[in-house]
């Protein structure tokens, strides 16, 4: 990872929160294609990194309230596993408008850090496969590189297996 809290890249609620907490990260801006809809794959491609290191932030609605699941773009979120981690029986993806209102970010740029409403957050355990991972920095075309444990500290989250991948039945 490059220099701690490098000042390249835009200032967002995520970068402000990380700087205020003294949590190291590296900003990575890239050119966002307005026609792109698979934002994580776009980030991996544009930054030249393997998709397994790029993690997407997904908001869910459960019978226990809203929550956040963070999984690699190579995988799918296991809604049942996340619901269990959030103390709920079931979960469904939150409506786009709800996700944007509660997070303060637009879909495709929802960062797990610096959200308007802090929600119970679970990071998939695949994040620990890497010294650093990439998550949205709070806008489309901007990711932050951060150590998994630093991300957990920044969001007050925990780690668990919440993914379904091609090998899962």
Question: What do these coordinates show?
Answer:
The protein is of the alpha+beta class and 169 residues long. It has 5 helices and 10 strands, in the order H-E-H-E-E-E-H-E-H-E-E-E-H-E-E. The protein has helices spanning 13-21, 39-47, 79-85, 96-103, 148-155, and strands at 26-29, 55-62, 65-72, 76-77, 91-93, 120-124, 133-139, 142-146, 158-160, 163-164. The protein has a 5-stranded mixed β-sheet with strand order 5-2-3-6-9. A 3-stranded antiparallel β-sheet has the order 1-8-7. A two-stranded antiparallel sheet has the order 4-10. A hairpin with a 2-residue loop joins strand 2 (55-62) and strand 3. It is globular. The termini are far apart.
The helix-and-strand class reads alpha+beta
State the end-to-end distance.
35 Å
| Mean pLDDT reading | 91
Uncertain stretches of 5 or more adjacent residues = 1-7
Pattern of helices and strands: HEHEEEHEHEEEHEE
Portion in strands = 25-35%
What gross morphology would you assign?
globular
Number of strands: 10
Widest beta sheet: strand line-up: 5-2-3-6-9
Helices, by number, come to 5
Main sheet summary: 5 strands, mixed
Specify Rg, calculated over alpha carbons.
Answer: 15 Å
What's the helical proportion of residues?
10-25%
Topology:
Blueprint: H1 13-21, E1 26-29, H2 39-47, E2 55-62, E3 65-72, E4 76-77, H3 79-85, E5 91-93, H4 96-103, E6 120-124, E7 133-139, E8 142-146, H5 148-155, E9 158-160, E10 163-164
List keywords for this structure.
single chain, 169 residues, alpha+beta, 3-stranded antiparallel sheet, 10 strands, 24% helix, 28% strand, globular
């Amino acid at each position: 990872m490059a220099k701690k809290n490098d000042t390249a890249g835009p200032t967002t609620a995520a970068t402000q929160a990380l700087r205020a907490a003294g949590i190291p990260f590296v900003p990575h801006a890239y050119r966002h294609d307005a026609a792109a809809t698979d934002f994580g794959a776009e980030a991996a491609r544009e930054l030249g990194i393997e998709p397994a290191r790029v993690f997407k932030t997904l908001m869910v609605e459960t019978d226990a309230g809203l929550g956040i699941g963070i999984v690699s773009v190579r995988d799918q979120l296991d809604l049942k596993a996340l619901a269990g981690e959030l103390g709920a029986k079931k979960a469904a993806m939150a409506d786009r408008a709800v996700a944007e209102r509660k997070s303060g970010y637009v879909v495709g740029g929802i960062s797990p850090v610096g959200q308007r409403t802090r929600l119970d957050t679970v990071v998939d355990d695949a994040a620990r496969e890497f010294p650093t991972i990439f998550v949205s920095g709070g806008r489309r075309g901007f990711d932050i590189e951060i150590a998994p444990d630093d991300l957990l500290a920044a969001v007050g989250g925990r780690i668990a297996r919440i993914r379904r991948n091609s090998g899962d039945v």
